[in-house]
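ok so for the tutorial part 2 we go from a plain amino acid sequence to predicted structure tokens. step 1 is just haveing the sequence, like this:
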Amino acid sequence: MAHPLRKRINNAAFAFRGYNVTNMGRSLELLEHPLYAPVVTEILDQGAAICKKACNREVDLVARVKAQAESSITSFPEDVSIIVAMSVAQMACLEKFFDIKVQNSKLLLGYSIGELAANIITGMFSMEEILPLPLVLSAEAASLAEDVTMGIVFTRSQSIKLSDVRRLCVKISSEGNGLIAPSTHLAPNACLILAEGETLDRFQKLMKEEISDKLLLRRNKSKWPPLHTPILWKKSIPNRGALSLFKIQGGFVAPKPPIVSCVTGKPSYNDWNSRDLLIQWIDQPQLLWDALYYLLESGIDLVIHVGPEPNLIPNTMNRISSN
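step 2 — the prediction. this is what the tokens look like for a chain of 323 residues:
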């Protein structure tokens, strides 16, 4: 009997998750499942080999999943590898055991690291080609996290213009006491900001006067590698990432189905421009809300989350459905 999902796949979108403070989810269940285990093990081992080569350290992702190892700033490369590998493995199981093919869906969406997984799933790049991009520079990106704080800027009653947030961040950065910039436009009323030193204090002091008296700010106590912000410029990470991108094969096939990029908020990938988009992916804010809005505007009636566990995308979609 055909899986019920096959009847809805033509008007569905697959959504791939990014890095979080927890990155295991139900991966262990899939790894221990008698039917799925061989597929999951093979792809985790593949991811481990890529991570080992890129980071020059011993990596065993299967053992890490079995141990349910907690994420930390030092395990950033392994966590990224697990997120991508488990996303690829889930899609492989969906096709092999349920005959549900990603090519039959309407759109893909990847948030942060998830956009790299979407590139792999559509066949634009192999995992060996694209996964090293975040891994080679991951240790340096993670080292910047020591002086970085994440702030969630939001309101309860009105929308926030990303341009207003960016303008204030540029003003504070120009004072010379550290860089601060938005990392993600989460929703019409919420942004993630990554800030060095005491620049987030400065933002909180000025935001009601400079942007809106309705603005609120909540700090996240976890440490976050400052992806998608100019903080990465301090280690020349975007430039070196760009050079590595232009040295790899692949990227000359238009994605099928189209990928709604969080760099642009729309399906912008074609058969040659993936490198340009992925260079911007490194240090430009993620336009997650624009991308989700495009999905809704496209008439999508089902969003299928892929990856170790649901986080930002399902939460945002649930808020939309209830309000």
